Amino acid sequence: MKHYIGLCLLLLVLATNQVVAQEKFITLSGKITDAGSHQPVIYANIQLKSGSIGTVANTAGDFIFKVAEKFWQDTLLISCIGYKTVTLPLPSASLQDMDIQLEPSVYLLPAVSVNVRDGFGLLRKMISSIPANYDTADVRLTAFYRENIRLMADTINFNESVLDIYKTYHTGRDHKDQIHIIKGRKKKVDWSKDPQLYGWISNITNTAYSSLNEDLQKYLDAKNNILNERNFRYYTCDYKETIREGDHNLLVLTLQPKDDSRKALVQAKIYIDEATMALVRCELKTTPAGNDYLNRHQKGGIGYTIMSKIVKATIDFTNISLVITYKQYGNKTYLSTVQRHWDWVVNSKKRGMKDVPWTGDFYLLVTDMTKDSLQRFATGISNDKASMNNEVGNNYDPSFWENYNILLPELQDSVKPKKDAARPAGKVTHVSNRQNGFTRADTLRGALSPLRSCYDVSFYHLDVDLNMETRSIAGSNQIRFKVVAPFNRMQIDLYANMHIQKILYEDQPLSFIREEDAVFVSFPATLSAGSEETITVYYDGIPQVPDFKIPMHGGILWDKDEKGNPWVQVVCQGSGASLWWPNKDHLSDEPDSMRISITIPNGFTEISNGRLQRKTPAGSDKTRYEWLVTYPINNYNATFCIGKYTNFKDTYVSGHDTLTLDYYVMPYNVERARTMFAQVKPMLACYEQHFGKYPFPRDGFTLLEGLYPMEHQSSVCIGKIKAGMQLDYTPLLWHESAHEWWGNAISCKDIADMWIHEAFATYAESLMMECSDGKDAGVAYLNAQKDGVKNREPVVGVYNVNHIHYDIGDMYTKGSLLLNTFRFVLNNDTQWFTLLKDIQQHFRYQTLSSDDLVNYISLRTGKDYTWFFDQYLKYTHIPKLEISLKEKGNNLQLTYRWLADVSGFKMPVKVTLAPERFGFIYPTTQWQTITLKQMREDDFEVDEDHFYIQVTEV
Ligand SMILES: [Zn+2]
Question: Residue 416 — pLDDT band, cuts 50, 70, 90?
Answer without folding.
Answer: very low
